[in-house]
Specification:
The complex is a heterodimer of chains A (251) and B (367).
Chain A: E1 3-13, E2 18-28, E3 32-36, H1 43-51, E4 58-63, E5 66-67, H2 73-80, E6 81-84, H3 96-103, H4 110-114, H5 123-133, H6 148-162, E7 166-170, H7 178-191, E8 196-200, H8 204-210, E9 213-218, E10 221-226, H9 228-232, H10 235-240, H11 247-250
Parallel strand pairs in A: 3-8, 3-9, 6-7, 7-8
Antiparallel strand pairs in A: 1-2, 1-4, 4-5, 9-10
Helix pairs in contact in A: 3-6, 5-6
Chain B: H1 10-31, H2 35-60, H3 68-87, H4 97-101, H5 117-141, H6 147-166, H7 168-171, E1 183-185, E2 188-190, H8 195-217, H9 219-229, H10 231-235, H11 241-267, H12 277-290, H13 295-311, H14 320-334, H15 338-347
Antiparallel strand pairs in B: 1-2
Helix pairs in contact in B: 1-8, 2-8, 2-11, 2-12, 2-13, 3-5, 3-11, 5-11, 8-9, 8-11, 9-11, 12-13
The chains are: A alpha/beta (251), B mainly alpha (367).
Chain lengths: 251, 367
């Protein structure tokens, strides 16, 4: 299996405070990686650095054999990286259908899109995604009228419509009911293999169900990495979370 | 549900356009050919064009431009120069009289291209678009949005106003340029006091409205609304947000520029008032009152307010702007989507009598 994403010594520092500190990460094609860690560990910042939303102080991000550090956000996305935000972001004044159609990016060129009237391509993809996330009956609803859970689904659906090689999911189950969370883990399990996923999550039941390998971050560094049981029993982890019930509680 | 409202039915929207423009086209037949009324109504057409540009740029593109007057004014000066040079004689009388009064002894180089009417028309249209493209790149590459865009466009408008005012030998300064003869093209003279001027103005408005409507129904139209809602989300779907915004801004400039050109054909006059800050803000008010998120609403707002101004404004001369300001405040506070939004709400109680569209995009998925 080949490496699809590699972070080499990635660092993000504000004046005196280093949020991500010489962080290294290797993700294999088709795997589902969970990024864990307490608040302030640098998980979301790491996602920002991968997607170019924040500029890194030093280090390199290599995606699919290509150095993407320093590229603009839309260029990085066009390489095949999709992202779901921590605070769900959808287009509130557009219908669910239009939200998904905008996410179907066969071409991103404005002039090409002026003569694109939604016929042809995309229809099959839309059908597939809508069924997967269960918004069939909500297609004509405005994005702003959806419930919190539905908004999460829509955003996941949008990222899926993009069909990226690598999906970055920042807290995809936040605010979801148990059943919804269960359904999300089913989807994620179906996605891995074909897609590569990096998931930031706090729900340990969810993580247990989906993760191949966990990377535990602490103060911007890797504290431990490996399968769930191994990380849980790691003495360093126990030390950091001393007095607590282990990572499950900290998260 | 959202789509069952007749207001959102595309077929109903096109039908409204057809009826609206159809009725307006026949207006001269019914009301006779009082030249002053026709001239007056042709002016309303230009106000409609300007409101249309604001609706596209602000209502759909989310860019609050207070500088639509820049394109309008630039194009108006270009058109005035074209018409002025149609009047001048290359041999006997090559220099416009206002330049002679300003002690110029030769025609300025920037005026030379306007000897040729086609070149003059292309420049009147092209220079504003080019300017809006460059200005747009500066604004949107820096990811400015909201009030910052409004302030920058306003400041730029102020700069152009002063330029037109100060460069007296080239622009006739405060007095402005009044070409002595009507505009001629393809051997036809467009008499500004005739039904022809009315149809020219209405024709341009109708053509621009239909083109803009089609543009908004394309995927480009959906994407710019997506960017308006959440630029960051759109960016992380892979869209070059700044590129889209520059294109929208430049298209808005093009529409306003065409308005400026028609305006000068109608009034045979241009002065720095075209570049006045107050005028550009007024355009935004028309669109806001009518409904910036509806092309038709914005056009209606422009015509409605101007008609009100000429009929009611005569009675309340001094207080008209207070009335206008009050209307604006009421609309912003209680009707964020303008009169069109009020209509949208009202008609939502009426069931859509049209059968469900069969050919609409992806309608099969909804089942």
């Amino acid at each position: 299996m080949s490496t699809i994403l590699e972070l080499q010594g990635v660092t993000k520092a504000y004046d005196q405070y280093t949020v991500v500190d010489n962080f290294n990460l290797q993700v294999t094609m088709g795997e589902l990686r969970c990024l864990l860690g307490p608040n302030g560990a640098g998980k979301t910042t790491t996602m920002d650095l991968i997607t170019g939303r924040q500029k890194m102080t030093s280090g390199k991000v290599i995606f699919n054999g290509r150095n993407i550090s320093g590229m603009t956000e839309h260029r990085i996305v066009q390489q095949g990286i999709g992202r779901k935000f921590q605070i769900p972001a959808v287009f509130k004044d557009l219908t669910v259908r239009d939200n998904l159609q905008v996410a179907f990016t066969r071409t991103t060129n404005p002039f090409m899109n002026m003569v694109e009237f939604g016929r042809g391509g995309g229809r099959a993809r839309l059908q597939e995604v809508v069924e997967l996330v269960g918004l069939e009956k909500r297609l004509d609803e405005l994005g702003g009228n959806l419930s919190h859970g539905e908004t999460q689904w829509l955003e996941i659906g949008m990222v899926l419509t993009q069909n990226p090689k690598l999906l970055l999911m920042d807290e995809p189950t936040a605010g979801m009911t148990e059943q919804e969370t269960q359904k999300t883990s089913e989807i994620f399990n179906r996605l891995k293999g074909e897609h590569t996923l990096i998931v930031v999550e706090h729900d340990m039941t969810f993580v247990r169900e989906i993760a191949d390998i966990i990377t535990l971050m602490h103060l911007g560094k890797t504290l431990a990495e490996g399968p769930m049981d191994e990380v849980e029993n790691n003495p360093k982890v126990r030390e950091v979370y001393l007095g607590t019930e282990g990572i499950s509680d900290a998260a | 549900m959202h789509k069952t409202n007749l207001y959102h039915d595309k077929r109903a929207q096109w039908a409204v356009y057809a009826i609206f423009f159809g009725v307006l086209a026949l207006l001269p037949v019914w009301m006779g050919d009082d030249p002053f009324t026709l001239n007056q109504y042709a002016r309303y057409g230009v106000f409609g064009i300007l409101a249309l540009s604001v609706s596209l740029v602000w209502g759909f593109g989310g860019i609050l431009s207070l500088g639509q007057g820049i394109a309008f004014g630039m194009a108006a000066y270009g058109m005035a120069a074209t018409m002025q040079m149609q009047y001048q004689d290359p041999v006997n009388d090559p220099i416009p009289s206002f330049m002679l009064t300003n002690e110029l002894t030769a025609l300025p180089t920037v005026w030379e291209p306007f000897w040729n009417t086609s070149v003059g028309l292309i420049l009147s249209m092209g220079i504003p678009v080019l300017f809006f493209t460059i200005f747009g790149i500066l604004i949107f590459q820096a990811r400015l949005a909201g009030a910052f865009v409004a302030i920058m466009t306003l400041a730029m408008l102020g700069a152009w106003y002063n330029m037109a005012y100060d460069m007296q030998p080239f622009t006739a300064g405060f007095n402005g340029i009044s070409p002595p003869s009507a505009f001629k093209a393809f051997g036809v003279e467009v008499d500004p006091y005739s039904s022809m001027i009315y149809w020219v103005s209405l024709g341009v408005l109708a053509a621009l409205t239909v083109s803009t409507k089609l543009l908004l129904q394309s995927k480009f139209g959906t994407i710019i609304q997506a960017i308006r809602d959440d630029a960051e989300r759109a960016r992380f779907l892979g869209y070059n947000v700044a590129f889209y915004q520059v294109v929208v801004f430049a298209l808005g400039g093009l529409i306003a520029a065409l308005g400026g050109m028609v305006w000068v054909i109608i009034v045979q006059y241009v002065s720095p008032t075209a570049l006045e800050i107050f005028f550009s803000i007024t355009i935004v008010i028309w669109a806001a009152v009518g409904g910036r998120m509806s092309l038709f609403g914005a056009i209606f707002g422009a015509i409605f307010i101007n008609a009100a101004q000429s009929y009611v404004g005569d009675e309340f001369q001094a207080t008209w702007f207070i009335i206008l300001g009050t209307i604006f405040i009421v609309v912003v506070r209680f009707l964020p989507k303008g009169l069109a939004g009020l209509f949208e709400y009202a008609i939502s109680f009426v069931p859509n009598p049209l059968p469900a569209p069969r050919t609409s995009v992806n309608s099969d998925i909804a089942k």
